[in-house]
Write a structure and sequence with these properties.
The structure is a single chain. By secondary structure, the protein is α+β, with helices and mostly antiparallel strands. About 65% of the residues lie in helices and about 10% in strands. The chain is built from 27 helices and 12 strands. Helix 19 packs across helix 21. It is globular and about 105 Å long.
Length: about 850
């Protein structure tokens, strides 16, 4: 028994010793003096700070601190090897890196948790972090403090919260060529790019660094009123472009339809009601979008505006947008003028039911949101909507209802305007219109459910990333989590709607593109109707206001993606105008070299005016290809009984037919009937040519969009943003849509201008269109080179566009001769027949060269 007692006593003594040497996690958490900070003096530390002025628009700063902690000296050292979620690990890491510092680090980003490695004698902790100097707020980055000293100079000091008395063996700073001033006068070595201190106390290390003048200008510009004015200028420019195109379209249509006899009922409906209605709607959108953008960027975003008033403004604006859109209206009559009165009554009844349904649902959603804003006490919220305590379940319900109501209204407004544009421009199928007329309640229910699902997903994403932000900024420094988190949570939940609305409205340029597209379709439809009544040459492409509309569609859908790659976010207005001007300039300079322009006006009237005459041209082009193929066989000795003189005679007959169609103007000798057929395109008019090319470019653009998204995923910062930025995940979906819209928009403009673009071969047309786009990116590339920014993303985007347009142009050629597909086993065989072997080899080599260049740039961007 005595032996057993002694064994128990010995066991208790061992437990006591272990408890003294390795205190429990509860004791470590409760006693803030248990860090044994004095025992960290035996640690060895190295630190490195690196500036990168080539990162995006602002200077990026990287910090790496490595600490060697002796196991025998610091009792909590072994806890650093525990799991990252354990209380022991978190307390030990807090003692090592944060100490008494309990402030939130908003600017500091960590690519990963500290890397811990252990040996028999020590534990090594590597702590990496980075930040951007993007405003004038002080930055706490690892053991460093970065504060603004003067307009250009920033003071950098080594001020670790802990380890002040540790042995700092080596401190290195890479300034990336920026000017600096060693205030400590203790650096052991100094070069143009590097500063090094050895065995110095951290409190003595202090230096100034001077940002380049351009980075300083960007920094001051981003914080000034002019930055917001630059964003507002983009909307003003966009609104002006929309208004000008709409007004020019209206004037041109009025001039075309004045004094036109014999108009049918449908033509009259389209010419009067459709013209005035669609133009009026587009002008309303131009005015509203500009006004709302100015309100969001200059008024509502100002800090003095409280959350309550901000949400009220957003509710009122969303409801107003829905009601002004009036999706129940239609400027084009559903019935013809000679319809009975009963039909008109039925149409009016449809409109009345649609209006009541839309107004009722929108007003109900606005009332729900207004109830939370005006009577927050019903949900346990203060009048300001921002509580200092953790929101209750009822309070969170109020936040959800308010946010969903506001976001649903704005989504519904975007959907209403898009429906109105598409319907007035006859872009939607007739079956959709009939269903909307007959069952408006069911249509509203389905659309409302879809919009509510989108709003809920955005709300869930917003809450998730903000909680991640809280955990990031309070990592190891949260002494009072309940009180601080309550204020933080209620603040961001009260401002949820405004944050997402600002982002969502940035993508309303897609809606503007739909409006311009609808106007262009309206013009093309009325022109085709008018040309059907008159005996005149077919339109080779858009002219006058139609050309301006086409250039505007190109600038909004294609050009703005280039501006995003170039990083000129606040200069979108200038980029927009330059894209329109460059396309018009290149087209004006090169259209005289287009094939049909060289053929002349007489040829277009005599050979292309009717479908039957165009069919004769296609027959001659087919014969031309057969004769050339027989000439190649003759050179190889496989032509049979046909002689060279016979084949050359047939070519002379075809040439005579071509010259005879041109009247007095002889076409250039190098042009043939095949060139004329390919220059006309696969469809009967320029609008259908554009739609055909847009569909092809959309399909060929899917791999390009995937490549760009994969490239974005290779950047660790882009992947980090998905978990920490409120709109990062929605922006990912929006980028996919924007990429595909850009490829389709480029294809549409290529097909629309197909007959006006210079070049005998179709890939040359793609090249000329890409050149018109590349003028502005070329200027941006020069500016990026001057500012030491990376322009390879912009170059890759331009190359991908050229590849897609080149392949689309070749596909258009096969579609031109699609009636001959029955004679060929595949589309590629038809392509060989059209281009002949030598021409096809040159085109394939050209495409492979483009793909090779794009792959080379893409691989470099992946490795950066």
């Amino acid at each position: 028994m005595k032996g057993i007692r002694w064994q128990r006593l010995l066991l208790l003594m061992m437990v006591a010793v272990v408890g003294w040497a390795c205190p429990s996690a509860q004791a470590l958490q409760n006693n803030r003096e248990s860090c044994w900070e004095s025992r960290l003096d035996t640690s060895h530390v190295t630190a490195r700070l690196r500036f990168d002025q080539n990162s995006k628009r602002y200077v990026k700063v990287y910090s790496r601190m490595t600490v060697d902690v002796p196991l025998k000296k610091w009792p909590a050292a072994r806890f650093l090897t525990y799991g990252e979620e354990s209380a022991e690990y978190q307390h030990a890491m807090q003692c090592l890196l944060r100490g008494p510092d309990s402030g939130r680090r908003l600017k500091e980003w960590r690519p990963n948790d500290p890397v811990v490695s252990a040996s028999s004698e020590k534990v090594t902790v590597q702590y990496d972090a980075f930040a951007w100097i993007e405003d004038y707020d002080p930055i706490r980055l690892g053991p460093w403090q970065i504060t603004k000293a003067t307009e250009k100079m920033w003071q950098v000091r080594l001020r670790p919260p802990t380890l002040q008395h540790a042995h700092w063996q080596l401190v290195e700073v890479d300034t990336d060529g920026m000017h600096f001033n060693d205030r400590s006068r203790l650096a052991s070595s100094s070069t143009e790019n590097d500063l090094v201190w050895r065995n110095q106390k951290p409190t003595l290390i202090d230096f100034d660094i001077e940002l380049p003048w351009l980075r300083t200008w960007l920094l001051s510009y981003g914080q000034s009123f002019w930055s917001k004015l630059g964003v507002a200028a983009w909307w003003v420019c966009a609104s002006v472009v929309i208004a000008l195109t709409a007004l020019r379209t209206q004037r041109a249509h009025s001039a075309d339809t004045t004094g036109t006899p014999g108009s049918s009922a449908r033509v009259g409906a389209v010419g009067s009601g459709g013209r005035n209605g669609l133009t009026r709607i587009v002008l309303q959108w131009a005015l509203l979008s500009g006004a709302i953008a100015l309100t969001l960027s200059l008024v509502v975003s100002q800090p003095p505006i409280s959350s309550r008033w901000r949400n009220l403004v957003c509710l009122a604006a969303g409801l107003a947008l829905v009601l002004v859109a009036r999706p129940w209206c239609s400027a084009i009559p559903v019935t013809a003028p000679d319809t009975t009165a009963d039909g008109s009554d039925i149409a009016r009844d449809h409109r009345r039911r649609q209006a009541h349904t839309v107004i009722g649902v929108a007003s109900t959603m606005a009332a729900v949101g207004a109830l939370v804003v005006l009577a927050p006490q019903m949900f346990g919220l203060p009048q300001s909507l921002v509580s200092k305590a953790e929101p209750s379940v009822l309070g969170n319900v109020g936040y959800v209802l308010m946010g969903l109501a506001i976001l649903w209204l704005w989504l519904a407004a975007m959907a209403a305007w898009m429906w109105r544009f598409a319907r007035e421009g006859t872009l939607v199928p007739a079956s959709w219109t009939r269903r909307w007329d007959k069952t408006p309640v069911r249509c509203i229910a389905v659309v409302s459910a879809l919009l509510l699902a989108v709003a809920e997903s955005m709300l869930g994403c917003f809450w998730w990333v903000n909680e991640n932000q809280w955990r990031r900024t309070t990592w190891l420094t949260d002494p009072d989590p309940v009180s601080r988190h309550g204020t933080y949570a209620s603040s961001y939940r009260a401002g949820f709607a405004f944050s997402d609305l600002t982002w969502m409205f940035d993508y309303s340029w897609l809606l503007t593109g739909v409006a311009l597209f609808a106007l262009l379709h309206f013009r093309a439809r009325t022109q085709s109707t008018r040309s059907g009544r008159k005996r005149e040459r077919p339109a080779l492409g858009p002219e006058g206001p139609d050309l301006l509309l086409t250039a505007a569609v190109f600038a909004f859908t294609v050009g703005l993606r280039g501006a995003a790659f170039a990083g000129f976010y606040t200069q979108y207005g200038v980029w927009l105008i330059l894209n329109i001007g460059s396309l018009l300039a290149v087209l004006a300079a090169g259209r005289r070299w287009s094939v049909l322009s060289q053929m002349g006006h007489h040829f277009c009237v005599k050979r292309l005016r009717t479908k039957r005459r165009r069919g004769e041209l296609m027959t001659k082009a087919h014969e031309y290809r057969n004769v050339n193929h027989q000439l190649q066989l003759l050179d190889q000795g496989r032509a049979g009984d046909v002689t060279c003189e016979q084949l050359e005679g047939r070519l002379r007959v075809l040439r005579h037919w071509l010259v005879d169609g041109c009247g007095r103007k002889n076409p250039p000798d190098h042009l043939s009937v095949l060139d004329a057929a390919l220059a006309w395109g696969p469809e009967g008019d320029w609008w259908t040519n554009g739609v055909h090319a847009a569909k092809v470019a959309f399909c060929f653009g899917v791999p390009a969009s995937g490549a760009l998204l994969y490239l974005d995923s290779q950047d660790p910062w882009n992947m980090t943003r998905l978990a920490f930025e409120p709109t990062a995940i929605p922006a990912l979906v929006a980028n996919i849509i924007a990429y595909q819209t850009a490829w389709a928009g480029a294809g549409f403009v290529l097909g629309t201008l197909w007959r006006l673009l210079p070049g005998r071969h179709s890939p040359a047309r793609a090249w000329s269109l890409t050149c018109s786009y590349a003028v502005v990116p070329g200027l941006a590339a020069l500016l990026n080179k001057f500012t030491h920014a990376d322009f390879r993303d912009l170059l890759l985007y331009s190359l991908l566009m050229l590849i897609i347009l080149t392949i689309t142009s070749m596909w258009m050629d096969t579609s031109t001769f699609r009636q001959e597909r029955q004679y060929w086993p595949s589309r590629f065989a038809l392509l060989v027949s059209i281009y002949q072997l030598r021409g096809l080899s040159a085109h394939v080599a050209w495409i492979l060269a483009q793909v090779g260049a794009a792959v080379a740039i893409w691989s470099q961007l992946v490795k950066r």
